[in-house]
User: Which sequence fits this backbone?
């Protein structure tokens, strides 16, 4: 795709962002061209394993949410560029799971503080940029546009659109925080830090966590998703609490 045909939305000298309307027209054209294949162009160029993972969300008609796509990329350890609709613009965020970095042409504070709750996935493709250290020269070096992956995943889970448990941790289960989690590196308020310490000491099911001080079901779900995306959530299907949840169908007794 030739980005020169799209009108820039930010001042000269800064990384250019495309207009969402123009990018949508481009995707619609590509979708029409690939219709006989039967696979959405949103994910058609990805590895088979990652494509199969994301295809679950394509097939249910809801499309992929930001946190689902990011979780899948990290789970499969695939470098990808995710094109997010952010208001009237498209923001390409490149994910480097092994390096635990993301590249984002928009100021990260602005993305998190102003746009996180409205991010929509438009397109996912193999990474368009090399990872820092992969090649010699400026394109392979870490720049001001590279940011730690962990805080973005944390904020996406806590403040993004998804309000249900990710499929990998859903269902009858009990949860506990892994001892190795460094809570000092998380952008979390004191109350959440206290809850995380409690989750280190005992396994709980979703219903119990929802009843802790300062929590409800939505907050509990978001916290569990956030901990999972930090690779710091221990999920047990055989713990007595998990078996009890299954017996009672996950509903309050």
Assistant:
């Amino acid at each position: 795709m030739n980005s020169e045909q799209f009108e820039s939305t930010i001042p000269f000298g800064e990384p250019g962002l495309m207009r969402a309307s123009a990018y949508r027209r481009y995707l619609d054209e590509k979708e029409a061209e690939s219709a006989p294949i039967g696979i959405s162009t949103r994910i058609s160029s990805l590895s088979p394993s990652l494509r199969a993972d994301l295809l679950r969300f394509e097939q249910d008609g809801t499309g992929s949410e930001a946190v689902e796509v990011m979780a899948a990329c990290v789970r499969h350890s695939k470098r990808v560029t995710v094109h997010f609709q952010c208001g009237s613009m498209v923001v390409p965020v490149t994910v480097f799971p092994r390096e635990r970095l993301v590249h984002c042409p928009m100021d990260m504070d602005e993305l998190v503080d102003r746009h996180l709750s409205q991010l929509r996935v438009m397109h996912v493709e193999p990474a368009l940029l090399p990872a820092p250290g992969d090649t010699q020269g400026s394109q392979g070096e870490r720049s001001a546009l590279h940011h730690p992956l962990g805080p973005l995943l944390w904020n996406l889970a806590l403040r993004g659109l998804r309000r249900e448990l990710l499929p990998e941790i859903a269902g009858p289960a009990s949860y506990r925080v892994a001892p190795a989690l460094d809570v000092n590196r998380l952008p979390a308020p004191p109350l959440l830090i206290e809850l995380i310490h409690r989750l280190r000491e005992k396994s709980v099911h979703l219903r119990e966590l929802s009843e802790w001080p300062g929590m409800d079901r939505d907050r509990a779900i978001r916290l569990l998703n956030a901990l999972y995306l930090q690779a710091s959530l221990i999920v047990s299907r055989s713990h007595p609490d998990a078996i009890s949840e299954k017996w009672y169908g996950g509903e309050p007794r």
In short: DSSP finds nine helices and eight strands in the chain. The longest strand covers residues 89-96. The beta strands are 18-19, 80-86, 89-96, 101-103, 120-126, 146-148, 174-177, 233-236.
